UniProtKB/TrEMBL annotation:
One of its GO terms (molecular function) is branched-chain amino acid transmembrane transporter activity. GO terms for cellular component: plasma membrane. The chain crosses the membrane at residues 21-39, 45-63, 70-89, 95-115, 122-143, 173-192, 223-243, 249-269, 276-293, 313-334. This is Branched-chain amino acid ABC transporter permease. It is found in: Cell membrane. It comes from the Bacteria. Signal peptide: none annotated. It is a multi-pass membrane protein.
């Protein structure tokens, strides 16, 4: 097992632990860049949707995973990001200006809402955010000049660098655009956690009393985390609007919020990797179940389509199993397997029980 001895604080907060890890991520980005030439346009569309979920998951992970605040209404901020982006573009703004502006607009609204709502905690905060999501659905209908009312609004093609980027017309270009957004958000997120602000998020998550004793302004930290979380989620909502190409009040129902919560829980709360693992499960597992259903029907003769909703039930059962048997999520499971592989044959089954006594900040790094 390779042990990396850290000799300074700067080395401790380095973005990549060593050159090997940086090289791994470089290879991963190169593979993701070349992916459109290796798979069909249909699968590429599904992967593009996973990228959008990755950004939305990172948005919620800032709040739930790294600040310890519960939200069941983040679909509302996806809606705000989507409608604001389309409205800015309808006013003649270029997409490259409208996209970050929509994220900033959503973040400001989130920070304003956070000031009163974050006085609550636990189940009361969850109920308040749930109510917020329902209110935004109604506002999307009432604010017809901006949201198109019940009919909704169409997402126009994106004109950029002499290219017309459209999900169906140019899926490769749309995929690369989403991939760039994912890389930028991930780098920003990772650097945020290295900063004093990111450390204050972790301190508030682990113990508000201890954080306050160390001089952290808990109220301001929570509001900042909520605003940043909403901004990233709004960015995902803007990309989602261009992915589905028409949005109305039904595009961001409460089911989207629950899916986001499931995503970060399944992937692993408290880690950026968890947002990616969760997005892969949430985005691709239903498609995998559908493919398995067609395979069983065509090759084995078992027609599970005669039982409506069984694919959804299987999806739910898998999620429940993950939550029960691996509370740290898929990323925690991956870290356990990695540690056992590196310690083989000295690994013990109960070696991870001691880690429960560690601080959360140390366990999930």
């Amino acid at each position: 097992m390779r042990v990396h001895f850290k000799k300074s604080y700067d080395e401790d907060i380095r973005l990549f632990e060593d050159w090997r890890r940086a090289a791994k991520y470089g290879v991963l980005i190169a593979l993701m860049t070349a992916l459109p030439f290796l798979i069909s346009d249909y699968i590429l569309g599904e992967v593009t949707l996973v990228l959008v979920w990755c950004i939305a998951g990172m948005g919620l992970m800032i709040l739930a995973g790294h600040t310890g605040q519960v939200s069941l209404g983040h679909a509302a901020f996806m809606a705000i990001g989507a409608f604001s982006n389309l409205w800015f573009m309808s006013q003649g703004m270029h997409f490259l200006i409208a996209l970050p502006l929509a994220a900033i607009f959503t973040g400001v609204i989130g920070a304003v809402i956070a000031l009163p709502i974050l006085r609550l905690s636990g189940i009361y905060l969850a109920i308040a955010t749930l109510a917020l999501s329902i209110i935004v659905e109604d506002i999307a209908i009432v604010a017809e000049p901006y949201t198109g009312g019940v009919a909704g609004v169409f997402a126009p093609p994106i004109e950029m660098f002499g290219l017309t980027i459209d999900r169906y017309g140019s899926p490769k270009a749309f995929y690369w655009m989403c991939l760039i957004c994912v890389v930028v958000v991930t780098l920003g997120y990772a650097n945020l956690l290295r900063s004093a602000t990111g450390r204050s998020f972790l301190a508030v998550r682990d113990s508000e009393v201890s954080a306050r004793a160390l001089g952290v302004n808990v109220t301001r930290t929570k509001a900042l985390a909520f605003g940043l979380s909403c901004a990233v989620t709004g960015l995902a909502g803007a990309l989602y609007a261009h992915f589905i190409q028409i949005v109305n009040y039904e595009s961001f129902l409460i089911l989207i919020s629950i899916t986001l919560v499931l995503q970060v829980v399944i992937g692993g709360l408290g880690s950026i990797h968890g947002a990616f693992f969760g997005a892969i499960v949430v985005g691709l597992l239903p498609q995998g179940i559908a493919i398995l259903r067609d395979f069983l029907q065509g090759s084995v003769g078992i027609d599970i389509s005669a039982y409506p909703g069984i694919d959804t039930a299987v999806f739910a059962a898998i999620i429940v199993a993950i939550v029960i048997y691996e509370p740290l999520g898929l990323y925690g499971f991956y870290m356990k397997l990695k540690a056992q592989w590196q310690l083989f044959p000295l690994a013990r089954r109960d070696m991870f029980r001691r880690s429960k006594s560690y601080l959360k900040t140390e366990r999930m790094r």
